[in-house]
Amino acid sequence: MAVIMDGKVAAQQADQEFAMRIQKLKQQNIIPGLAVILIGDDAASQVYVRNKARRARKIGINYQLHRLDRGITQEAVLQLITQLNQDTQVDGIMVQMPVPKQIDANAVMNAILPQKDVDGFSFANIGRLWGNAAGNFPATPRGVLRLLRDYHITIEGQQAVVVGRSDIVGKPMAGLLLKNNSTVTIAHSKTQNLAQVTQQADLLIVAIGQAEFITADFVKPGAAVVDVGMNHNAAGKLVGDVDFKSVKQIAGYLTPVPGGVGPMTITGLLEQVIVLAEQRATL
Ligand SMILES: NC(=O)C1=CN([C@@H]2O[C@H](COP(=O)(O)OP(=O)(O)OC[C@H]3O[C@@H](n4cnc5c(N)ncnc54)[C@H](OP(=O)(O)O)[C@@H]3O)[C@@H](O)[C@H]2O)C=CC1
Ligand SMILES: Nc1nc(=O)c2c([nH]1)NC[C@@H]1CN(c3ccc(C(=O)N[C@@H](CCC(=O)O)C(=O)O)cc3)C=[N+]21
Ligand SMILES: [Mg+2]
Questions:
Q1: If you placed Cys at 227, which of 53, 87, 128, 242 could pair as Cys (CB 3.0 to 4.6 Å)?
Q2: 79 and 172 inside one domain
Q3: 96 catalytic residue (yes or no)
């Protein structure tokens, strides 16, 4: 039976560390500032916004939410970003994805100053990730790596398979694993013989948005399996992309949904905000 990687516990430990780092900043009169822009009413974004507001405030981050109507113009969004770019109290800015179709997501993300782009979704930060430079990198992959490290799972030299190639999870996950010396394969909906590919994985990271799609026959015995997915099954229950029941019989390590990657994504984000505020403190 797999060891269950508890993202809630790991996130609580991280929050204690973060609260101490924020206390130090406050002695220098610096309060980390995070501005979140939510356009419309995407369900996964609502969950994220609610949970990160609670955790950010609890550890002492100055958190502000800008809720915009789903019909808002791109110009108005860009104007808000310009204002937040200029606000010296704001260390990090993020726009919840997805955005409504009249908004060009790339235009919006690239309007955020690269150093304030906490999500690391701007082309400047994508280039820094793949160009081996320091930068801001996406929260979900950072949270996943932190969870693997908390469970002392080896990353260097291991065969990692990332299923999913989105700009917000799959691609940056692959980039960070590569940076950490895994041998990385990226699989997606056009991959042939997916199970044969995933069976090679010592580290299997799944982000496809298909309820309970990855069953035991996709998994190498003893593998560490990380389930990024958040879906509702036929019964309306929140489930991941991995079939928890069958995979836990064969995997060495496995994340639950909820209580796995979700809390660690928030950890990845909060840490990035604190790092940015620490950089401001040294200016
Ligand atoms: N817990 C958390 O912190 C977060 C959770 N999520 C969740 O993770 C999941 C993925 O999100 P996101 O990356 O934004 O998803 P996207 O929908 O943007 O991308 C899905 C990816 O999965 C691939 N894919 C879809 N079906 C299959 C399949 N049957 N076999 C192989 N590959 C497949 C797609 O391939 P192709 O490119 O060929 O279309 C695509 O690359 C969702 O459930 C989302 O809610 C997302 C962000 C954070
Ligand atoms: N710019 C941007 N960056 C993102 O990282 C981003 C985004 N947009 N849009 C939406 C998705 C989704 N996402 C989640 C984060 C945390 C939980 C989370 O807290 N989950 C908990 C609670 C789940 C629940 O109670 O329903 C858990 O899994 O235990 C969920 C989903 C980040 N995303
Ligand atoms: Mg989870």
A1: 242
A2: no
A3: yes
